[in-house]
Each structure stands twice: as structure tokens, then as C-alpha cells.
């Protein structure tokens, strides 16, 4: 079963199954914790209605945090394989470099994002009709997890196994605070043109790394009398740029990984 | 990857199934509060009569509450039918306050007040009786002054129809009457305040300060050629403040319907079936599960 550029999808599938199954315990723990949090919020906050965004944002935020940790662990494992030379065993006989990186992309980025989105859809299908308010968050959720996977994989492919896990956990923990700095500057320098452009670019960059968190922050800011929404980057633009960024970055990873001296 | 997604979905539906099944057996109270809502009585009608040695005032307050979802309940229609909202007001606490600070040397024997709770139809009848008497007597264009005879028949009708009758307490130049009312039934409260004819007001702006003389002045304003400004000053001789407190019981229950539990069960069945199907095609992926199962089976057979 050969796909584009001579990639054997069956081999990729086997390797993905192998990589995912060896972290099945981590997946199970992550799913259980995320589900308990979601179920508790479902019970205690859903009566207020999705219009308040409490139900959909807070449990999603917790679930995202847990899944980001999981992504960081998976990426760190890939980094260890590269550092210890374990990767050469896979590449010697069974997999090409493209197939190896494709399976890493599927395991580190796409599987957690898919699991979280599918879990949420199941929750909503059972408990309530899918509203636009909650449904529209899912592309942002997917992009947020994919961007996190891209950042940690950039470190892992560079062989920085520990950096991948530490930066991954730090980003998951403090992304709200990191985003707060350029946003604060943007609001502060709203009228000062050169400083405003710098703050706008910084906000856009941080927002691209975390589109769902930015969308929530954006809706909070525009509903408060702090600032006019015209000067803040539009969340949809952020989503599109974020999607484009992770696609381009993964293409760069594929090209660089092929040329990398292992 | 497929296995991970399937296991995640099966676990999610199993967890939701467990919570919903548990909640459908024992409904869980999520929110419970019992705040007091202050209500403002919407309408009042009054009548005045000079009867025997007394000057009496009648006030009718329609006290009803037709609330529900809105300001005091959840603001929007709930997005899910997982919840049951209980919202009730069992009884309204009515407090009638009559300030008597404007009277001179008032003693408890000079004044009396009573509150009657009557049903809606009786309240309408009282209003009709007042209107009828006003049409016949036509004492004053300023005050709803009715005849002493008409007043007597109204009060006896009210006493007869009263669901509740409360005599108000006189405390330091004001009356306080505490009573209750049943919400949603549209009951009305009729407040009767009677002064001895000789009671005097502290300041009226004119020489006369006796309450019966003042009423007489207003009745015969045209005869005495009183200017409108003086009449208007004499009109609010007595006023009554009515405050109503509604103790509300408000609760939100997690009370899933069987359809929610069945939906969760259906999802669980579908995902478990998918796992079984996946196991048929790729049993080696489930080695992690089958090994402990095999060990358990061995242990059972050994015993």
C-alpha cells in the first residue's frame, strides 16, 4: 500500500500502532483525568448554558493542558530515539525517514488532537445538542494541539529530548501568562504606532501558538470595556495563520530530517 | 492509533454512562438557594369615610407574584434537558407600615389599623362597592370620600370575606402589620386605618389641624373657596407603605432522562463493538490486555 513519495502507509500504520500502544497507559490516564474534569464541569456548570462559555472553556482548558503534557512526553520519546540511536534500528530495515517522521506526526500531534475532539463530540452528542458556540471551538482546539506538537517536535528532532519535555510542560502551564505580556503592551500602546506594530506582531505570534486560548482571551477582552476589538488580531485570522504555520513547519521538518546526519 | 481513539471514546461513553445512570437513580442537587425577593405591590385604591366618631382610610393592594424563569431564575433557556429546575414561592410575607409622625400627641387609643386578606373576587367586589358609593355620594373631586353607611357595608363585607385578619401593632408613632399572602392566587390586602375625629396634625399649612375638619375642608373645598394648592397639600394626610418579601426556593437538579442514559449506553455499545471488530483484525495490538487476562484465567483455573 504505497502512497505519495513512495511512503508505505501500512508500515506507517504499524509503526504508529506500536508508538501509540507503548504509551497507552499515559493515554488512558490522560483520557480518564480529562473526562473526569469534563464530566464534573458538565454536571456543575452546564445548567448555566453554553452562552456563558464557562462549561466549554474551563474543562477544555484543563483537557488541553493534560493533552499538551502527553504530547510533550511523546515528542520527548522521539527525541530520545534520535539521541540514543534507537531510530537507526527502525530506519535500517523497516522504515524510511519520511515514514518514521510521518508516524511521529501522527502519534505526537494528530492522535491526541483527534482523541480530544472525538471525546468532546461524544460528550456533546450524549448530553446536549451540539451548539455552534461549542462546535466552532473544535478547529481551534485541533490547531492548538497541533501547534504545540510542532513546537515540541522542533526541539525533539533537533535531539533536545529534555528541552522538548520541559518547554512542552512550561508552554502548557504558562501560555496564558506568556500571551498576557504582548496583549498588555498592545492595549497599552494602542495609539503609539511603532510600539503598537511590535506588540501586534508579538501578540499574533503568541496567538498562533495557541489559537483556542487566544480566542477565549479575545472574547473576554472585547466583552470588557478595556479595548476596542479593532486593534486585536482576529481569532479566525489567527486560526488560519496557525494552520498554515504548522503545515509549513512540518514540511520543513520532513525536508530537514531527510538531510540530517543521524 | 485506531485502538487509542476507540479506547478513548469507549472510556468517555462509559464514564458518562456511569454518571448519568447514577444521577438518574439519585438526582443530584447542583444548586440550592432560598433568597428573599422584595416585591412592590403594583396597584392601590383608597377610600376615606367619616363614620361616627372616626375618620377611616381604606387601602387595597393587589399582591400577586407571577414569576418563574427570568431575573431570579436561570436567565436563558437551558441548553440541555439533563436538568430539572425547581422554582417555587410558598408564601409572601407582607409588611404594612403606617408612619404617623405628622400627628400631634397621638396615643394608641386615638388610632387603630387592621389588615384583611381577601381573594381576588372579593377585592373586585370591594372596588365595585367603593365606585358605586362614590358615584352616588360625589363628595369630593379630590378624595375618594364615601358615605359612612357605604363604608360600614364595605367593612362588614370585608370582615365576612377575609381569609386572614390581622390587628396591627402600634409602636412609637407608627403601625406595623405583619401578614402573609398566597402567591399566584391574586389575593389582595385591604388595610383599614381609623383615627378619632379629634386627632390633630402637627402642621397643615392652615389654621385647622383636626383631621375631621381637614377632610371636611377637602370635601367642601369649593364652598370654602380653598385654592388647589392648599387642597393638594392636605391630600396626603396619611400614607401607607407596603413591602412584600417573597422567600423563594430555587434549585437545580441533575436529573437525566432515560433517553440520556440509553444514548450513553448506545455509544458505549458502538465503541466496544468497534474495539471487538478491531481486535478481530489486529489481535496483536491487544497483547497488553490479553496477557493480564490470560494470567487471571490461569489463576482462576488453578484454584
UniProtKB/TrEMBL annotation, chain A:
This is Uncharacterized protein. The chain crosses the membrane at residues 24-47, 54-73, 100-126, 163-189, 196-216, 236-257. Keywords: Membrane, Transmembrane, Transmembrane helix.
TrEMBL record, chain B:
Keywords: Membrane, Transmembrane, Transmembrane helix. It comes from the Archaea. The chain crosses the membrane at residues 261-281. It comes from Candidatus Methanodesulfokora washburnensis. This is Uncharacterized protein.
